[in-house]
Automatic annotation (TrEMBL):
Residues 265-307 have a biased composition (Basic and acidic residues). It comes from Olea europaea subsp. europaea. Residues 308-331 have a biased composition (Polar residues). InterPro entries: AB_hydrolase_fold, Hydrolase_4. It comes from the Eukaryota. Residues 66-175 form the Serine aminopeptidase S33 domain. Pfam families: Hydrolase_4. This is Serine aminopeptidase S33 domain-containing protein. Residues 265-331 are annotated as: Disordered. The lineage of its organism: Eukaryota, Viridiplantae, Streptophyta, Embryophyta, Tracheophyta. Transmembrane segments: none annotated.
Amino acid sequence: MGIVTSSMAAKLAFFPPDPPSYRVAEEKGTRKLRMMEVVEKENVDVLKLKTKRGTEIVSFYVRNPEAKLTLLYSHGNAADIGQMYDLLNELSLRLRVNLMGYDYSGYGQSTGKPTEENTYADIEAAYRCLQDTYGVKEEDVILYGQSVGSGPTLDLAYRLSRLRAVVLHSPILSGLRVMYPVKQTYWFDIYKNIDKISFVQCPVLVIHGTADDVVDCSHGMQLWELCKKKYEPLWVRGGNHCDLELYPEYIKHLKKFISAVEKLRENPRSSTDQTDKHRANADYREKSSTSTDRRDNSRKSMDHAEKVNNNAEQPESTRSDINQLNSIQMA
């Protein structure tokens, strides 16, 4: 029963776009990698990374000359980084951060198959690249996980004691809890975020739509309650699962969060044991913020939906246009 349920949960968790939205080509002479079907940018590096599980994943790194911090973005279950390319470049610009996006094994032009364990190896490879290739320190990293991406994000976050911050965007408590109203964690569950969140020692921002019909807002609320270092959450009034970027409060609140964590001072590392990590030097528990802004109905979605609920046999249709955040009024 457990194996069958776990296999079903994993099957319903991943919807890699078919065909992928992009190709990767190598420039003759320079061996520089390029993502085809997207606009080439001078400040973007395209990379292929080996994981400890033997797969090769595609990622890209966006440099922002004004950045103090670096954001590692784990996308949702029905998009690849070709579809996320414009949005992530826009986030780098708006938030003034360096940013790395990556595809899970089996997504885009990454090899292998998408599995829970592979996604853990995937984010580790991306994080290792930030350190080894770009010299990014752990204390200057913000992990950002969207929906299913909250799984690899929290798995890495609960094992690192000096992260600057974590952002959970429409996160899940666990795979089975999306599909069934279970009250306990079973051994065969996937992405057991509910059991990991309390080990995260850095400030955590949770963003969730109150009208999310794929992953109920209660998932985000419960994870926020379990955080050790709570930052003011954003409950987007009327927001669904795949449209939160369209609300003005989304980017405003993210900018506020980035500004706050930029001011944090690094504390000495007190222990290498994951259950005895250092405490941050600021108390981030604040009252929750609920967006009263309505989304711009003229703008189309910028990503894919996550389908891991009772209607999960088919993913939501891809978002046909990426206008990004250009029309959002900034604070």
